[in-house]
Design brief:
single chain; about 375 residues; mainly beta; Thrombin, subunit H; 3 domains; 7-stranded antiparallel β-sheet; 6-stranded antiparallel barrel
């Protein structure tokens, strides 16, 4: 499986990373002895993040080679699948050889060897053109612009301009109320008025248009809004409750009500390492991108899981289809005639960007279409 920029350095695959393939009250007087002192309410305790089940032992495939030579076009995910049943366990078996230059990267020609230490599997580079003695020198190398089996555009737009914005951020954000020309829509260079800026505003903001509200399948409350990026605005005057700004760039017309969010800077880190989550995953797919009803491999989904739930960039989750309920015409006397079927796996997805209560995930593999409502769970605990 290839993730844009999941390419090697000279067709590299990073071993510690995948190159792109996701804020006193006053004390009361002491009561007289004849009065009854009220019992204070217990302090509020923040809900603890549930830890993931104890990790299962790393499972090596019986067909795993004891020796493998890295080829041009290989990816970390693909190499991990050669050796492991669960590719996200790669950090558990990789042993970075300190005797070679850039031990955390894999290059074409490297010889990967599978061996065991005290019964535990290890994989390291034991041969190839890089197995040389280290010298006290510093070298700088750039990642190649080629060898991109999956275009970086697959996830790059989601790293630059979010398509889903947390509800609290959208509701509290400043917004455009009108313009000096009293036009109904605005383009480049238009002077507009903004309400709701903080006491010390930034100079530059990104403009977004609020869209459909996304609700939690568990609580029914709005946790995020779909949003459309429409351009950028520079604040030129901030006096009183209404500030003045100038539209800097647009992707479509800007309208009253469009929201100002922190300026989207171009991300500098396009590296990812697939890993098993450290917390118990109980989530769902709440939105799809670039699709009406279903998505497949290398498409992006939104999960109702974020940093508050303990998920991290690079976490791999299993996606499952609800089993549903069927009528059992052959039920024995005393048995329920309706049976709920177990969930079945639809695919695997890697989280590449996280927010407070939501995250973006790229579908890495799919055995059936992924739809809104599919369950997200720990990959090792997922059913068949």
């Amino acid at each position: 499986m290839l993730l844009n920029n999941i390419a090697f350095k000279r067709a590299l695959v990073p071993t510690a990373t995948i190159v792109t393939l996701l804020v006193s009250g006053c004390a009361s007087q002491r009561p007289p002895a004849t009065q009854t002192t009220s019992i204070p309410a217990p302090p509020k305790i923040a809900p603890a993040v549930t830890t993931a089940p104890a990790p299962a032992p790393v499972r090596i495939k019986p067909t795993a080679p004891t020796r493998y030579i890295v080829k041009k076009g290989d990816t970390l995910w693909g190499i991990a699948q050669r050796f492991l049943y669960d590719p996200w366990d790669w950090p558990e078996v990789w042993y970075a050889n300190p005797q070679i230059r850039n031990p955390h990267w894999i290059y074409p020609g490297d010889v990967l060897t599978l061996y065991y230490v005290n019964g535990k599997p290890r994989i390291s580079v034991t041969g190839g053109p890089r197995v040389i003695a280290l010298k006290p020198t510093i070298t700088y190398e750039k990642l190649p612009a080629t060898e991109r089996p999956i275009p970086i555009q697959t996830i790059r737009p989601f790293l630059i301009h979010p398509r889903v914005v947390p509800a609290e951020e959208m509701i509290k954000s400043p917004h455009i109320v009108g313009s000096s020309s009293r036009e109904l829509m605005y383009g480049n260079g238009a002077q507009v008025y903004v309400r709701g800026l903080p006491a010390k505003p930034a100079m530059l903001y990104s403009l977004y248009r609020p869209g459909k509200a996304l609700k939690s399948p568990k609580t029914g409350r709005v946790i995020a809004h779909q949003a459309t990026y429409v351009g950028t605005i520079r604040i030129i005057r901030d006096q009183g409750p209404i500030a003045t700004g100038v539209i800097q760039s647009v992707t479509q017309e800007v309208l009253p009500g469009d929201r100002l969010l922190p300026y989207d800077k171009l991300p500098s880190d396009y590296t990812f390492m697939p890993q098993a989550p450290k917390v118990a995953i109980h989530g769902q797919v709440i939105s799809l991108f670039n699709a009406i009803s279903m998505v497949g491999q290398y498409q992006v989904v939104v999960l109702d899981l974020g940093s508050e739930q303990g998920v991290r960039r690079g976490d791999v989750v299993a996606l499952e289809q609800h089993g549903g309920e069927i009528l059992d015409k052959y039920a024995s006397p005393g048995e329920s005639r309706y049976v709920r079927l177990p969930n079945s796996r639809s695919g695997l997805a890697m989280i590449f960007r996280t927010f407070k209560n939501i995250s973006y995930a790229l579908v890495m593999s799919a055995t059936r279409p992924i739809v809104v409502g599919d369950v997200a769970t720990n990959p090792s605990a997922s059913t068949g």
